[in-house]
Write a structure and sequence with these properties.
By secondary structure, the chain is of the alpha/beta class. Helix 10 links the parallel strand 7 and strand 8. The longest helix has 19 residues. The radius of gyration is 17 Å and the shape is globular. The relative contact order is 0.15. Bound molecules: phosphoenolpyruvate (PEP).
């Protein structure tokens, strides 16, 4: 299975910084015949990145969110056709920061996911427990519930562009990544839940990314686990050199 390493820039980098990143990244990034890397910038930078990195083989550009309607009274949102016009090929859906700070529900995540897939975008659906849920040993229960509810509209046929990201909230931006064992246990659970939701074939081929304080120095041990198929990367994706080193170490270990 081709791994996938996706940069989530969150609300970081305006045009000048994105341009600087692109100039450095294009010098070091080694293209791949099958896409295995992606960047989700602030949307205002997508055309700029499209122009400077759009020709890089193996690199996808995408969005940090997507709405289920094509247009209408949805202030602050963006639709699948609008993203496709910008050349986006994927959308991150249900990131914990959206769930925690902007009231994103599993139901909304499900609608976003279905719309993205129906419109031909890859949907990277995020799930993960909070620190208190982790401490209360509720990880499995929380992740299973989020997964089932977030994939409520995904059919057994329409899942070839689905990607799951397990992101324990306590590991995001804290410098404290999950151990490879914890990640593997949860990824294995996700894969077995997926079997029931979308069938065995889809589940076996599904990429399940890990997210939470990954860096060039810890990606190899995570990728050594059989059910870890890539990473969603925040902080370490903001510098071209660091994101590229993570991709290379991940490729080598995957
Ligand atoms: C994220 O926010 O998706 C993330 C994984 O962030 P970080 O790598 O900084 O923990």
């Amino acid at each position: 299975m081709t791994p996938l390493f996706v940069a989530n820039w969150k609300m970081n980098k305006g045009l000048a910084e994105a341009r600087e990143f692109a100039a450095e990244f294009s010098k070091v990034f080694k293209s791949a015949s099958v896409p295995d890397a992606g960047i989700a910038p602030v949307l205002s930078c997508l055309p700029q990145l499209q122009e400077s990195l759009g020709q890089q083989k193996g690199l996808l550009l995408g969005s940090q969110n997507v709405h289920w309607e094509e247009s209408g009274a949805h202030t602050g949102e963006i639709s699948v056709p609008m993203l496709k016009e910008l050349g986006a090929e994927f959308a991150i859906v249900g990131h914990s920061e959206r769930r925690e700070f902007y009231g994103e529900t599993d139901q909304a995540v499900a609608k976003r996911t279905s719309a993205a897939l129906a419109g031909g975008l890859t949907a990277i659906v995020c799930v993960g427990e909070t620190q208190s849920q982790f401490e209360a040993k509720q990880t499995e229960q929380v992740v299973s519930k989020q997964l089932k509810a977030s994939l409520a509209g995904v059919s057994t046929e329409d899942n070839s562009k689905l990607v799951i990201a397990y992101e324990p909230v306590w590991a995001i931006g804290t410098g404290l990544a999950a151990t490879p064992e914890i990640a593997q246990n949860v990824h294995q659970l996700i894969r077995s839940e997926l079997e029931g939701l979308i069938g065995k074939d889809g589940a076996v081929e599904m990429r399940i990314l890990y997210g939470g304080s990954t860096k060039p120095g810890n990606i190899a041990e995570l990728m050594a686990k059989p059910d870890v198929n890539g990473a969603l990367v925040g902080g370490a994706s903001l510098e071209a050199e660091s994101f590229n080193s993570l991709i290379e170490a991940g490729r080598a270990a995957g």
